[in-house]
Specification:
three-stranded antiparallel sheet, alpha+beta, nine-stranded mixed sheet, Pseudouridine synthase, about 270 residues, about 30% strand, globular
Length: about 270
């Protein structure tokens, strides 16, 4: 597998256009080739950049499992500053040097990086725009999932997402229960695992074709994966330059926008 398209590059960073289906780094269980693997092979100097991640090896990641030191594996993440879920497409920053890694990491911690996502969701939210402030913990029903609902277990971490409805539309060929959809802009202020997917579920408008958070809904609009795209990111380089990088829509997004006559300049 080849490295994804480079959307932007300077002395400090790469910004890649991550395709659907590509894991950013190993998770301690799967044997799939990840972006981290490809980076280490193509740019071996990046292996020394960033911080390894501790993961549970050969477990189901359940919080109920007793974890011993032998269960913990260190996963190298060459230059990886943040991550996207495997099915999420779009902009992803990779640091070239430890200096730029630490500089970007601090921006993420300070919430000064602006991340804009676009998503197709089921239904029509009541509000045109707003902010979701709902702490996220582990789901009490599925060890793979997280939850902002009552019954979430483990440590609950604060999570904030700003949202805006860009377009509401209907597909009259579908049954009444599932014919309403919205095209939305989502801006996470925090970076919790599955945050946007969990918060849209919390709003009762899960993302189209999400296998974890919209299990009861049919796959629609031509999507066979979670309909979430990291559209743009705005950050400051170590030399003080503010950069905004935008990722073009992948094929499934572009097709849905055309089919339902949604302008791509929203």
């Amino acid at each position: 597998m080849e490295l994804p398209e480079i959307l932007y590059e300077d002395d400090f960073v790469f910004v890649f256009n991550k395709p659907a289906g590509l894991l950013v780094h190993p998770d301690g269980r799967t044997k799939e080739v990840t972006l981290s693997d490809m980076l280490a092979k193509r740019y071996p100097e990046l292996v020394a950049v960033g911080e390894p991640q501790k993961v549970k090896s050969d477990t189901d990641e359940s919080d109920d499992i007793d974890v011993t030191p032998s269960d913990i594996a260190l996963i190298a993440r060459p230059g990886i500053v943040h991550r996207l879920d495997a099915d999420t497409t779009g902009v992803l920053i990779v640091a070239k040097t430890q200096e730029s890694f630490l500089h970007l990491k601090q921006q993420f911690l300070d919430h000064t990086v602006t991340k804009v996502y676009h998503a197709f969701v089921y239904g029509h939210p009541k509000k045109e725009f707003g902010t979701i402030e709902a702490a996220i913990g582990r789901s009490g029903k599925d060890f793979r999932a997280y939850s902002a609902q009552r019954g979430a277990r483990g440590e609950k971490k604060d999570a904030i997402t700003m949202f805006r409805v860009l377009n509401r539309f209907m597909d009259e060929d579908l049954g009444d229960e599932w014919k309403r959809f919205s095209f939305m802009e989502l801006r996470p202020k925090t970076g919790r695992t599955h945050q946007l997917r969990v918060h849209m579920k919390y709003m009762h408008h899960p993302i189209v074709s999400d296998p974890l958070y919209a299990k009861e809904a049919p796959q629609e609009l031509g999507f066979t994966r979670t309909a979430l795209h990291a559209r743009s990111i705005r950050f400051t380089t170590p030399d003080g330059v503010v950069q905004t990088v935008e990722a073009p829509y992948p094929t499934d997004f572009a097709q849905a926008l055309r089919t339902y006559k949604i302008h791509d300049n929203v």
